[in-house]
Recover the amino acids of this structure.
């Protein structure tokens, strides 16, 4: 932004992510109040501490009108998409966040969105932690990059440790962060 930007041209809107493609570096938001789609650039999302966001995730943003339409200039909050009526995958067994351990720092080893899963390592521990794409979606994320720092809450499953919640580490290390959000 530059000094010529008029703060009155900015407004806070809530809505949901129509789609976001980390490879393209952008996506679009639909405002609750209606109107044209709002551009969400990857840099704005990164300034919030996330590299991706799940389709249909709730989002609160500051927008500014430009000659090409509205675009997000700041992300204020992101909430996980509403759950589908589809049954959860068997990997989740009967776990819920109450059974998960505390939020721990981790680094993504690899994640393949097309396969629907990947692995991360908790700092100081060589054990792989399984991350399913459904957990990312429920956490409000769409993808992870190798080497990305994240926060996770995990449980021990039949086949090893698995994530039940994944957050951007910047958001998780914020003292005001709440897993209930």
């Amino acid at each position: 932004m530059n000094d010529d930007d008029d703060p009155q041209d900015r407004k806070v809107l809530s809505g949901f992510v129509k789609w976001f493609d980390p490879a393209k570096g952008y996506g679009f938001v639909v405002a609750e109040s209606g109107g044209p789609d709002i551009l969400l650039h990857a840099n704005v999302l990164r300034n919030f501490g996330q590299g991706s966001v799940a389709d249909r995730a709730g989002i609160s943003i500051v927008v500014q009108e430009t000659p090409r339409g509205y675009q997000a200039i700041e992300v204020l909050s992101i909430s996980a998409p509403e759950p589908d009526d589809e049954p959860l995958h068997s990997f989740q067994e009967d776990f819920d966040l109450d059974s998960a351990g505390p939020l721990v720092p981790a680094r993504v080893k690899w994640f393949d969105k097309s396969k629907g899963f990947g692995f991360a390592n908790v700092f100081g521990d060589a054990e792989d932690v399984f991350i399913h794409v459904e957990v990312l979606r429920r956490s409000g994320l769409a993808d992870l990059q190798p080497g990305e720092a994240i926060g996770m809450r995990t449980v021990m499953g039949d086949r090893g440790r698995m994530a039940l919640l994944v957050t951007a580490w910047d958001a998780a290390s914020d003292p005001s962060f709440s897993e209930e959000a």
